[in-house]
Amino acid sequence: MLHRLSIFDIPHIQSAVTANLSYADLRNCVLVCKTWFRGFNPVLWKEFHGYESNLWCCDATNYRSLFATLDTRRSLLKHCSHIRSLSVRGSNLLRALLNSDCVHLHEIHYAIDRASAGELGLQYLLELMDQNPYLSALKLTHLGGLKTRDDEKDFREFVACLKEYPDVQRVQIEFGYGPAEVERVLACETLAQLMRFKKAVSVQMKLRLLPYAELSRRRVIVNDPVRRALDEKRVQNENDRQARELQRITALVESMDPFVVQGLVLDVDFQGQDRELAMLLLGKCLNLRRLHAWHLAELNESPIKLLMTHCFNIQHLDLRLSARGGGWAEIFRVSKGLVSVRVSGTRMNRLSQEALEEHHGATLKSLSVISYTGELSLPNLLAKCPNLLTLEAPGYFLSVAEVESWDLTMWAHKLETLHLSLNIENRWLQRDKTIGRVEQARQKICQAIGQLVGLRRLILGQYSAKKAALRLGHGIEHLAGLAKLESLTLGGGSEHVQECDVQWMVDHWPALASLESGAYSTTHVPEYVDKETSTITLRSRTRPWHVGQPITFVTPPQWSDCEICGDKFDMCCYSLRHINELRLQEKIEMYEDEFMPSL
C-alpha cells in the first residue's frame, strides 16, 4: 500500500498517482515516474511537454489542468488515508487534502512556492497539521518564496503557532535562497524561537556576509565631488547596516539554548565575519547530533578544537573540504561514535580511513565517499566496520593489482546498500596492455559483490561507453546469490541490456522491485514487479509503454532520419513538436497501434 507520496520531486507525479495506487504492498513506495506520463496519453503529453526537464511544478494553469483532466484529485483523496509521508511544493495539493481522509501523516515536507499558487499556503499547512494528530516531523524549504515583508510576518506568525503542536518535535527549516541580509536574521530569529519551544531543531542557513573590502571596490571615482561624496556615503551606510545586522545575529545566537539544536547545516566559508559567527553558532550547539558544513576554505586548528571540545555528541557528519592534507584524519580522531559520514571535496586517504576504522568502526552504519579517491581499501573497511549498512563510493577507481589481491572471504558482510563504479583506473590500463587482466578484474569485483548476500540496493556505475555494466558473460552470473536484492541501477553505454539479461535477473532475484538502466540505454527494462499479478512494469527512455503491461521485447521499426533533429524517428516520435512539421500522422498511428497498448 502507498505509504509515501512525493509531489514536487517529479513534475508528472500527479498523473503517476492514479497508475500506481492500484498496486499493493510496494515496499517503501516512492512515486518517481518521468516516462509514465508520456505513455499514459500522448495528447496530454503535448500539453505538458514544455516543462519536462523542469523538476518543479511552477505553472499553476498546468497544475490545475492536470488535476481536472486526469481526475487525480479524486483518486488521491480516495487513497490518502494510507499516506504517512507527504512532500509537496505549492499550496494546491495542501488545499485539496483538507477535510479528507489524510489523517495519518507522520511527516510533512513543504516547499514554499508563491509562483505556483499565488500564496504562501502556510494557513493550509496549519489546517492540515490540525487534522493529523500523529504528525511528528515538519520540514520547510525554499524560503526564498518569502518576497515581501508581509510574507515574513506571516512566516513569523506560523513559527509562533508551532508552539501549539507539542507532538511535532522535529522541525527542519532550510534558508539560503532569498536575500541574504533578510534571511540571516530570519533564520536566527526562527532558530531562537524554536529553541524556546524545546523542539529538536534542524536548521539550514547560509551565513555569507559581504566583506567590507568588496563594498569599497564598488565606489565610482569621478571628478564630480558631489557624486564622490554620495558614493562614499552609500558605502559607509552599507557597512554600518551590515555591522548592525551582525550584532543582531550575534545577540540572537548568544541567547540560544545550547542543548536544543540537534541538526545544523551551514553554508559558510569560515573566513572573516562568517567564520566568527559560525564558530559562535557551533559553540552554542552543545547537543548537536547532525552537522553539515559546506564550502570550507580551509580546516585549521580552531574548527578541530571546537569539534573536540563542544560538538562531542555528533553522530551524523557531512563535511565538504577544499583543503589538502590530513584534515579528515584529525576530524575522525576528535569525534566520537559517528553513525553516518559523508565525505566530499578533499580526497579521503588511507590515513583517514585508518582513523575512521579505529575510532568509529563499531558504530558506523553509513559511509559516502563522494570525492575522487584511489586509496581506499574496501575489504579492510568492511572487516573493520561490521555494522556498516550503506557504502557509497562512486569516485573510487580500482586498480588491477588491488583487485587481484582481494581476499573474497573478507566480503562476507551484512551490507544492504552499495554504490560502486566498475571503473579501472586509467593509469593501470596504460601500464597493463592485457585486456584479459582488466576483464578478469571486473569479474572478481562481481564475485566480491556476490558475497554480500544481504544486499538490497545495488548501484553500479558505467565503466564503458559501449558496454552495459552487467550482462550475461560479463559478471552477472556471480550475483546469483543476491536473493534479497530489491533495487538495481545499472550504468551502461549504447549496447543494450538484452532480453536474456533481464529474464535472468527476474529468475534469480525474486525480491527485485526496481530495475533501472543507464542513461544511454534505449531498451525496455522493468520498473517494478507486481507480486500479485506477476506483471513487470516497463520503463523506456525512448518508447513509453502503459503501466501494467506484461513484459514484452519488440524490435522497433527502422524509420528514416528525422528532418529536424537528425535522429531516428522512432527515437523522437514522442517529442511531439516534430509531428506537425513532418506530417507523419499515419505512421504515428500505426506505431501506436502496434507498439503502445491503448488505455
TrEMBL record:
Record's protein name: F-box domain-containing protein
Source organism of the structure: Podila minutissima
Gene3D superfamilies in UniProt: Ribonuclease Inhibitor (3.80.10.10)
InterPro entries reported for this sequence: LRR_dom_sf
